[in-house]
Amino acid sequence: MKSRSISAICTVALCVLRGSTVNAEADATKPPADVSTSAESSSKPNIVFIMSDDQDYEMDSLDYMPLLRKYISDEGTSFARHYATTAQCCPSRTSLWTGKTAHNTNVTDVVAPHGAWVKFVSQGLNENYFPIWLSNHGYNTYYTGKFLNGQNKDSYGKNVAHALMKGWTSADVLLEPYTYNYNQPGMKRDNANFKLYNNYTTDVISTKGIDYINDAHQAGKPFFVGIVPMAPHVQTWPANGDAAPNPPEHLPISAPRHSHMFPNITVPHTVNFNPNKTTTGGWVGKLPLLDAEQLDHTNLYYRRRLQALQAVDELVEAVVQRLGELKLLDNTYIIYTTDNGFHLGQYRIPSGKGCAYETDVHIPFMVRGPGVAKGVKRTDVVTNHVDVAPTLITLAGLPLNHAFDGTPMPIGKAATAAHIPHEHVGIEFWGEPEFDGAGQLHLKGNTYKAMRIIGTGEGAFNLAYIVWCNGDHELYDMTSDPYQVDNLMLLGNSSSSDTRITIAGKAYPVKKVRNRLDGLVQAVKKCDEGACVKPWSTLHPKGDVSTLAEAMKAEFDQYYNQLAKMEFEDDICLPYYNAAAEGPIPKPFGS
Ligand SMILES: *[C@@H]1O[C@H](CO)[C@@H](O)[C@H](O)[C@H]1NC(C)=O
Ligand SMILES: *[C@@H]1O[C@H](CO)[C@@H](O)[C@H](O)[C@H]1NC(C)=O
Ligand SMILES: *[C@@H]1O[C@H](CO)[C@@H](O)[C@H](O)[C@H]1NC(C)=O
Ligand SMILES: *[C@@H]1O[C@H](CO)[C@@H](O)[C@H](O)[C@H]1NC(C)=O
Ligand SMILES: *[C@@H]1O[C@H](CO)[C@@H](O)[C@H](O)[C@H]1NC(C)=O
Fold this sequence. Notes:
Its EC number is 3.1.6.1. With 591 residues, the chain is an alpha/beta fold. It is 29% helix and 15% strand.
């Protein structure tokens, strides 16, 4: 009964949104059951959502995907300032499909008890996430590829704790221990038996994605199809040798047809690559320089990543061509993104993700479709993965009646109208350093809160601020230091320092800026819904501050100087989210 009344509200809201079209007015008089009649569905757009795994922006991976450029970015809009809010697959994907930050989903790890599929289910999210909302409103929904870790062939769909994914008309997902096996993926479609394929993983996902597009077209309802290959993630398998892949290499594996490509390519040696001098904090600051063997490995790994992305590039072409053959391109949004970024040698870290650095959080996001400007690269808006669910909901013409921590990205008319501009991205993580050898180096504690904040247009600025669980701090002025190698917290916290940071044309001492950013981190650290989108309102409830430039006013100096700083209790690095350990939310100005 409940979902029926929601869909009635939605029908009305839809008609409000599209009140100028004759079709919508006609539909307004029909009962909710008619939401998905063919007249209605022909006007509702379809969405095809393609997501790679661990794809970087900062190491130029997009430059090696000519088909993605031809079919998506040249035909649509790229959001060049798009961020993951937690740079690891399970937390990031959970935030993406729920529109909630990781501190609100509390899915904060890739394994149980703090993460993975079992945690997603136990948090009630399998009853309350994107495909459910969409299918309640007349959409058919399909998904193929990797969803979350911990979906295992022995448990998935076999008991309540490991329930099948809800909300999908059909879902055919990769299951462990074959999820990260490039030449022998194992999958389960709905209630059918688990099945192994002796085909290249991305090709299997491509075939299944296109089959779903065909099914969706036949069904005649508006549709969402998620196509989520595992590339270019590293190949992994259980330590006990079960499901050992061929070849048994802990690297990304390309399709045979791409294994000759980029023979002598090397990781771009930007200034943050294996630097002689490091100013980073936390466990990263304790890393030794990479040796020659490790450096060779970064290049091999990089080449394999780019090779593995070639089949993803072909997948994009196959999808767009099929939609073209079915004459669906005019009414279909096609989105391309990834779950989180990646580093290979930067800051001396051998490989991996999970850091707050630009390599890990800055990620590709592009879209083509009805009303989307072509060949445009947007650097004037800051967006992130908790914005994705509200964006998709708005593109589908549904009301934003869920507890989203994000705001629709400006794509098409309705989403642009609903978009709330913001400069910041709150970034958070709980866990341990993750790379081969971390244990031997006795490195601990990858728990932190961070802030990316970018002012665009005149008076632009570009800052990154990180507060580590062990009390270390990092602050980078990315206008002058785009690769984050000059941590101003090491230089700028002494009163003798004359380093300045320019915000909206005015130069400020580092400390003054840091105090504002620390306040902002704290306004975001436990935020919910609107407060996540407009965090300055937590510090300035009168509503007179909504940008960093406004917060810099001298009248607020004393408030920010006296504000208790972001701190993790006793500098303990808990590997999970304990709200009490992350300090109180600061008192607002004037209280
Ligand atoms: C998050 O989940 C962990 C268990 O994984 C639990 O200990 C913790 O209390 C939860 N945090 C919040 C804020 O609910
Ligand atoms: C696997 O490869 C075979 C041989 O090329 C092909 O006939 C089959 O359709 C492929 N299956 C999938 C699921 O891609
Ligand atoms: C790659 O390097 C090898 C040996 O260093 C060289 O013989 C070969 O020509 C190079 N290939 C390309 C495409 O540059
Ligand atoms: C780092 O030090 C090594 C050895 O002294 C030197 O060869 C190399 O050029 C230095 N790299 C940079 C980026 O300064
Ligand atoms: C301040 O700078 C010193 C080095 O000049 C450094 O040891 C200390 O950790 C810095 N303080 C913070 C809070 O980063």
